[in-house]
Write a structure and sequence with these properties.
- This protein is α+β, with helices and mostly antiparallel strands and 170 residues long.
- It is built from three helices and seven strands; from the N terminus they run H-E-E-H-E-E-E-E-E-H.
- The protein has a domain at 26-138: Immunoglobulin-like, CATH 2.60.40.
């Protein structure tokens, strides 16, 4: 019986100390409606990110509103409304943020960056900057196009080199 009361006391202490509430866990992204590398993202699409902890509490709200940046392929800032929900009125959305871009264009690549300054109600921060790169319909990655042009030329040079080596070996 005495052992049972000690176990109950330890359990109560760990609960009151915050153990089990995830306080030792870092803030993390749990889901996103746009994933890194996604293509054909519609220009009017909102982006919803869900984190592992409350990022909407009044104690961290103002700080967190400034932690989201959307830029185009030239590095220019794209205006966007950042929506954090009232964690007292919409408790089920306290971990969510919705990014509403004002004017994404077709045939463009975008970069959504979430700063390590993003802070949860319990003080946890993102351990590293979060980056989601995506493109809208009509975007052609110039790097892959250049590779398609360079690859055949490289193959031709290699083939010529091999033929030259074979001729000199004979």
């Amino acid at each position: 019986m005495r052992l049972l009361s000690h176990i109950a006391a330890l359990a109560l202490l760990s609960i009151s100390a915050g153990a089990g509430s995830g306080q030792d866990m870092p803030l993390a992204l749990e889901s996103s409606t746009v994933v890194h590398g996604e293509t054909e993202v519609e220009t009017g699409r909102e982006i919803k990110l869900v984190f592992s902890k409350n990022i909407s509490n009044i104690a961290v709200r103002d700080n967190n509103l400034g932690c989201f940046t959307l830029t185009d392929s030239a590095g220019a800032a794209v205006p966007a409304e950042i929506v954090l929900f009232d964690d007292q009125l919409e408790r089920e959305r306290r971990n969510d943020v919705v990014i509403k871009p004002a004017a994404m264009k077709e045939a463009e690549c975008y970069r959504l960056t979430v700063s390590t300054n993003l802070t949860a109600k319990n003080g946890a921060n993102l351990p590293e900057e979060l980056v989601v790169v995506f493109s809208t319909p009509g975007y052609e990655d110039k790097r892959s196009s250049a590779l398609l042009l360079i690859a055949p030329a490289a193959m031709a040079i290699i083939a010529a080199w091999i033929l030259t080596k074979r001729r000199h070996a004979d």
